[in-house]
Design brief:
mainly beta, about 5% helix, about 700 residues, 3 helices, four-stranded antiparallel beta sheet
Length: about 700
């Protein structure tokens, strides 16, 4: 990779070996943007989320919180007319005869428009709060549900209120009507689920009782489904199918039998709430919309396709017509998809949010990626997606293989450690951490059974993966990085913050000082001071901290803290460390003595410490300065490079090229020539790994790339 030509040339010509977005993403058949003069600079169809979306043979109707209803028609779906009801429109429904369009509105009304004149014929008013959804029955009813907890049944031809159904105690948010009978099913935010007879106005089935729900600071607390059947939380949408099935959706799909009211199957947890569901009778398939567009076989629950849509944004509405599926998202965008293309593409896999970390085992032809979208994906060595696990409640982060059992990899998510067999692509074991808020950032393996998991906010834990036993290390600072030494000793850096799971007595705190870390004075008395933290030496035999190596100095840097930042190397009993004040220091571990190697004259805190042969390099934190210190000559050079936002610095295996991020660009810098050999815009790469002849990259928007050199 002397000049890295293959990688750079392939990137620039868009001929990379396997950028996963090319093979794992089924692009919409068209991006629905409408006419530039009627959109936001030619971009989105609406300026707010699209909650209403229905279609007939002639028109596509969309509505939004931007207080408009748009009617689109023609081969290019040009905007035919825009209605301005002067209120937010949450949902739309078409009457069975095709003559009427109903709109659920924030002004406490359900509005009825006649098609195609789009003349307002009825303004149905009986609610005391927002109208969430509306639906038509075959018997001439229009049903409206509201935040006021009421379900209203109207004779929509004459605009007469037939029934006011009361029984829900909270906001009624989901609604669907039987395709042939005068029945409706409604769900509220406290998870209650009821079935109504629209002609008699009676509740014929109290399927799920409501739970306690409170509103705190504008947020809902509680309201989960405690019945043990159906969805885990309140349903956001539902559909009553003509084959005797009812679909209810929250963060998962649940399919019921309308005769026995038994749950036939329950789908996997989605990363975001399912806001819309559509039934394709010809394929016996339901399509759900969350951050992904998913197709399910109604009878078996088999996933027929799964596709990330709208760049991972929340999708609020979906509807299909003439084999085209329309989806509307939270930013007002509409996409049109070919259902045949989605089905032919199968179950496509992709992260929908930022990559947290990547682990590589090319010997077993596996790449493992974790993401903030609460999933982990297994890929083969060339980047082909193999399997996705998305049943996590929060972000995931792979931490590497178990020594001696390299086919077993550990992954951390909040409150859990999960072990996977990467050859079989199966979950082997789940270990619950003693604190559900802990997600480890790093791991050091003590032996083949135990590792130290550490994160910035909590004390480190020793986890035994065989027994599941957990031991909290008695430290006063959290660990940030580690380096193995010799004789069972490991060096750990720390950061000056008090771990969230440790408390000190008031008499231990020196008056006037913020409790952030501990220092040891000349008499050996432990006292608390702010802005300092030590280098710690851990003994794997005693499983205790053997030494704390402290440095205390006058703080001059704008960062306002002083701590060991980067473990550079260990050699002949000496640890070389880069500190936050842009200095490099040498600790003699046995003598516990520290010598200063160099103070770099940077303007800010030091980052990007690394050594190449007999030369140390450091990137200044917030300027374009790079410092180069030659050990043999005891000389220091200063030069400049591109950008002032140098993050995620990574030196290549050739010890010649450095990769880092600057703004939206990936920079590749040749240290010998000091020349920029690559400078291209990428959507915020987060992770970069070098394995053999491959470069593996994870980005902020959830993509994973595999490049060959």
């Amino acid at each position: 990779m002397a000049e890295n030509k293959t990688y750079l040339e392939l990137w620039k010509t868009n001929q990379l070996e396997h950028p996963l977005i090319k093979s794992a993403y089924v692009r919409p058949v068209s991006t629905f943007v409408g006419q530039p003069d009627s959109m936001n600079d030619g971009g989105a169809a609406h300026s707010n989320f699209i909650g209403g979306l229905v279609s007939n043979e002639q028109y596509l109707f969309t509505s939004s919180e931007d207080e408009t209803i748009s009617v689109w028609g023609g081969d290019e779906l040009d905007e035919v007319v825009t209605l301005h009801p002067e209120t937010c429109v949450n949902y739309l429904a078409l009457s069975p005869c095709g003559r009427y369009l109903a709109a659920a509105c924030d002004d406490y009304t359900a509005k009825l428009y006649e098609i195609p004149s789009m003349k307002l014929v009825h303004n149905l008013s009986n609610h005391d709060n927002y109208v969430s959804k509306v639906a038509f029955s075959q018997q001439g009813h229009l049903v409206s549900i509201s935040k006021d907890g009421k379900v209203c049944v109207w004779d929509y031809e004459n605009g007469r209120l037939m029934h006011e159904l009361q029984g829900h105690e909270e906001w009624v948010y989901s609604l669907s009507v039987h395709p042939t009978k005068p029945l409706a099913i409604t769900g509220a935010l406290n998870s209650s689920l009821k079935v109504w007879n629209l002609e008699s106005g009676e509740c014929v089935k109290d399927l799920i009782k409501g739970s306690m729900l409170m509103y705190v600071m504008g947020m809902t607390v509680g309201g989960g489904n405690s019945s043990g059947i159906g969805n885990d939380k309140a349903t956001a949408c539902s559909a009553w199918l003509p084959n005797g099935r009812i679909v209810t959706c929250a963060h998962e799909v649940v399919v019921w039998d309308e005769n026995t009211w038994e749950v036939l199957w329950k789908g996997e947890q989605q990363n975001k709430e399912i806001k819309a569901v559509y039934y394709d009778e010809s394929r016996n398939m339901i399509v759900t919309a969350s951050a992904t567009v998913d197709g399910w076989n109604v009878d078996t629950g088999e996933k027929m396709f799964s596709q990330v849509g709208h760049d991972g944004n929340q999708i609020y509405s979906c509807y299909a017509s003439n084999d085209i599926l329309y989806t509307g998202d939270e930013k007002g965008n509409i996409n049109a998809w070919s259902l045949n293309s989605l089905l032919q593409g199968g179950n496509k896999i992709q992260h929908s949010w930022s990559i947290t970390d990547i682990q590589v085992d090319l010997e077993r032809n596996r790449i493992i990626s974790g993401s903030y979208d609460n999933s982990v994906i297994f890929w083969d060595g060339k980047g082909k997606p193999l399997k996705q696990f998305s049943n996590f409640s929060d972000s995931t982060k792979p931490l590497g293989a178990i020594p001696g059992k390299e086919h077993l990899h550990i992954l951390t998510t909040y409150g859990k450690v999960v072990i996977y067999d990467i050859e079989k692509m199966e979950e082997v074991k789940v270990i619950s951490i003693d604190n559900k808020l802990i997600e480890f950032d790093g791991a050091y393996w003590i032996d083949n059974e135990r590792f130290i998991g550490y994160t910035l906010s909590y004390r480190p834990r020793i986890i035994n993966v065989e027994t599941g036993a957990i031991t909290i290390l008695e430290t006063f600072c959290s660990f940030t990085h580690h380096m193995e030494m010799e004789d069972g000793l490991v060096a750990f850096t720390s950061y000056p913050t008090e771990p969230l799971d440790i408390k000190y007595d008031d008499d231990e705190v020196e008056e006037g000082m913020q409790l952030n870390s501990i220092n040891v004075d000349a008499e050996g008395t432990a006292k608390k001071y702010k802005n300092f933290s030590p280098l710690m030496i851990f003994d794997t035999q005693s499983l205790k901290i053997k030494n704390h190596f402290w440095l205390k100095k006058k703080l001059e840097k704008s960062d306002g803290t002083f701590y060991p930042n980067k473990l550079l190397e260990y050699n002949n009993g000496n640890l070389i460390i880069g500190y936050s004040d842009s200095s490099i220091k040498r600790w003699n571990v046995e003598k516990q003595e520290c010598n200063n190697i160099l103070d770099f004259p940077g303007d800010d805190y030091g980052m990007g410490f690394f050594r190449v042969e007999n030369t140390y390099f450091i990137f200044d934190g917030k300027s374009d300065k790079i410092f180069e210190y030659h050990l043999s000559e005891d000389s220091l050079e200063e030069w400049s490079s591109v950008g002032a936002d140098k993050r995620n610095l990574k030196i290549a295996p050739d010890n010649e090229h450095v990769y880092y991020r600057s703004g939206e660009n990936l920079i590749v810098l040749n240290l010998k020539s000091r020349a920029i050999v690559f400078n291209e815009t990428i959507t915020d790469y987060r992770q970069l790994e070098f394995v053999d002849d491959k470069i593996i990259m994870g980005t902020e928007d959830g993509k994973v790339y595999v490049f060959s050199n």
